[in-house]
Structure formats: C-alpha cells, structure tokens
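Quick look at the format.
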Amino acid sequence: MKIPPFYQVTQTMLGLISNINANHIELSRKNIHIKEKILRKSILKSSLFSARIEGNTLYLNTLNVQDNSNEDKNEVLRILKAVKFLQQKIRYGDSISVELLFLLHSLVMNGKVGLTHGFRKEMGAIFNQSGVAVYVSPPPTQIKELINKLIIYFHSGKEQFPLILALVFHLIF
C-alpha cells in the first residue's frame, strides 16, 4: 500500500471545495440552533454511510425508531459520538497520534474511551451483503508501519487542502 496514494486534484475537485467552503461560511452565520440541527443531520447521514460500508442497512428515516437494542442503530450512534468528540476536542493544527486513533476506535467500536490499546493481530476484511470481500486489509504485521506513515504524511504539509487530506486519511485508514 502506497502512502499517500497517487491522486490528482482536478478543477472539479477545486470547484467542490470552493462550494463547501462557501457553505461553511454561510452556515457559520446561521442561528446556533439551526446550525446545530443542520450539523447533526449531516453527521448522522455521514455516520449512516460509514456504517453502510460494513453492512449496516439503516437509513435516516429508520434511525429515529426508539429501539435502543438495535445494534445497527447503536453502531451509527457510536460513530456520531466519535465525530462529536472530534468536533469538541480537536482543532485545526492539532496533531494526530496513534493514541488518538485508538481512542476514536474505542468510541466507534464500543462507545467508550480506552478499550483499544493495540493494533489488530488477525487479517480483516469488509464483506458485502452477498458475503463477497470488497476490501481486504493489509496483514497485521504491516499495520503499525502503515499507520505511522499515514500520520507522518498527515503532518507533512504536502497536501494544501484539509478536505482532501481528510479524504486521503479516511481512504487509507
């Protein structure tokens, strides 16, 4: 696995980044309650899409059902909790560390901080609903080195657009 992967910033990407920045400025002008509602819905949608990668079948209209025993719902809410943690605790320019990744992993997997203390020791894969592996992760013996390379890349300043840096980080991680 090459870190960073090869990619090229296109004019289309620059246009989308510009639109996102304009929307961010407009959102910052909104009433705090409206802004919180928009952010919550956006984060919920993002959490649903992230969970869907691993087979979660929930949609936004089924998420509001008052069934706390539903594991798919709890998975999405744990992702939401991790995103809120990032928004409240991490600021632009803060460093990323292995410890922070473990903390976020604990929040997403368990809903609690401090339960992840190391890298996995077995092969992993993501399967589609038919049971076909759509992604096979690198061998456990390579994980620590790859994560360290990813963190070094993150801090290198080679990518000038934070949004693209976040996308590359998400793609690799």
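Next, a different chain entirely:
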Amino acid sequence: MHFLLFTVCDLLGEGMAGIFGPQSTESSSVVQSTCGALDVPYIQTRWEYRLKPKRHNLNLYPPPNALGEAYLAYVKEKNWKMFAILYESNDGE
C-alpha cells in the first residue's frame, strides 16, 4: 500500500487535478484518504455501499436503492417470479 500512496502523491505533484479510483476496496481506501487530506477530487466507478460519500468523493456507480428499483421494474416487466444476482466476491463487486 505504501507504493500506492507514493504513486498518488507523485501524480498529484505532477499537477493531477483529480483521481479516478481503483476497483479494490483496500486500494480505494488509501486513495480516498489521501485525496481527502489534500483536497483533491476522488471519483469512484465501483459500488461502495459501506462508506458514506466524503466531501471530495464522487461515485459514478448507481446507489443500491436505485439498482434495487431498476431490478424490481425489470422483474415486473418480465413477469418473473424470482431472480438471482451472482457476484464475483462476497463484497458484491
């Protein structure tokens, strides 16, 4: 994780205006913390249901309630009685 921290700091030192976040939870928390401490925009493109958005974060992934509403509308449209969602990991990522 130290390498990631140094990489983020190097990019910011070169004039990076913001950072698109990594996909892993561990890496994302390092980048989020660094960007928050340095007042740099941090843009996430993954589902992060556990954390509340910070002042400098923007998550482009739909919030869980919006996904739920979309799933429900689709299931009703198809007149399905049930459906399942399979995820690659236990975090639902």
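The two ends are 20 Å apart (CA to CA).

See the schema section for token definitions.
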